Amino acid sequence: MKTIENINFKGERVIIRVDYNVPFEGDKITDKTRIESSKETIDLILNNGGRVILLTHIGRPNGFEKKFSCKLIVKEVSETLGREVLFCNTTIGIEAEKKSKMLKPGEIILMENVRFHTEETEGEIDFAKKLSRLGTVFVNDAFGSAHRAHASTCIIAQFFSKKYFGKLLEKEVASIRKVIRNGKKPVLAIIGGAKISTKITIIESLMNSVTDILIGGGMAYTFIKAQGGSIGDSICEKDFCDYSIQLLEKAKARNIKIHLPKDVIIANRFDNKADRKVSKIDKIPAGWQGLDIGPGSIQALKPIVKKSKTILWNGPLGVFEFDNFSKGTVELGNMISEATKEGSFSLVGGGDSVLAVKKFGFSNKMSYVSTGGGAMLESLEGKELPGIKALS
């Protein structure tokens, strides 16, 4: 892994592919994590004499769309980095190249949204070549986009002899490897979410690394249904019942313990204000559905988390968006926080589990919280991401 540590960037124009695809409400950024996560890389390069050209995308525009312009984030990026950030309203061409070449040491310029060009997502080589003319060094720090073989995340790298992992990308890769390659045992994977169909390859890949797997969230009911349990109106993928049995058998053959909830909080409708009560997970009455793990399941989980030296958390244990069905996810966060405090390594990644740790204030209590959704999931599946392979 070629990193930027101890590299002299004096005289260099460094293209950094960042991932500033931040969420908005109106014209306000609601989560600046991805911008904040790029600061270490940018500071290191500037402090070592470099000039910085930032490439990113926002959203999925169809040609130029003002609501996806990078101009909207210049102020927030400047404030977060604590440095003035210049802006170029083009991405390639004479003006873009001129502005990048005029940069002085210590200066930063943010280019317009790379996805305003269809050639970006098509991975078009000529477009990547034009992007490469903006700089003399390429650094990829966009883990959230590393699973895309796009022009600015992957194809561009072939035009540089000097190409490096940014600090964020380095941390992401190291954290995932710490779980799936060299995690200290016992290794616990907590896999939640609604559907088992979206987690098949992840679970099978993790069987090469873990000692325990906790299945939570909506996907647990498919396992219970497959074993003959009554799950009422709970979510269930009937087409995957046979597969869930096969998965249990595979785990048993490999001496991997799969843990399923013992009891759950059920509701008579999918609503925060619904009537609710505790039920055994395999005896849910008709007209009721499981929306969170129950008190018995929480108690059974505590010793499993406590003994684990490496913990992966991917997916919530219930409908945490509803306060009345968030206790299982919150309690799990508390358990992992305590284990981390006692020396365990904890990695949180993949969609809603990241939202949960942010919502309930656990972000700073975990060893690492991934910034990549799809990229994180594909890494856990054992895939080599195009944006990472391109740096080799």
Radius of gyration from CA coordinates: 23 Å
Major β-sheet profile:
6 strands, parallel
Describe the global form.
elongated
In helices, the fraction of residues equals: 25-40%
Number of helices: 15
Could you explain how this protein is built, in words?
- The protein is built from 15 helices and 19 strands.
- The chain has 392 residues and is α/β, with parallel strands linked by helices.
- It is elongated.
- It has helices at 33-37, 39-47, 74-81, 94-101, 118-122, 125-132, 167-180, 200-206, 220-226, 241-253, 295-307, 327-341, 352-359, 374-380, 386-389, and strands spanning 13-17, 24-25, 28-29, 51-55, 85-88, 108-111, 137-140, 163-165, 187-191, 212-215, 230-231, 257-259, 263-267, 276-280, 283-284, 289-293, 310-314, 345-348, 368-369.
- Helix 9 packs across helix 10 (241-253) and helix 11 runs parallel beside helix 12.
- It starts with 12 loop residues before the first strand and ends with a helix.
- A six-stranded parallel sheet has the order 5-6-4-1-7-8, sandwiched between helices. It has a six-stranded parallel sheet with strand order 12-10-9-17-18-19, with helices on both faces. Strands 14-13-16 form a three-stranded antiparallel sheet.
- The model has no long low-confidence stretch (mean pLDDT 95).
- A hairpin with a 2-residue loop joins strand 2 (24-25) and strand 3 (28-29).
- Helix content is 33%, strand content 18%.
- The longest helix has 15 residues, at 327-341.
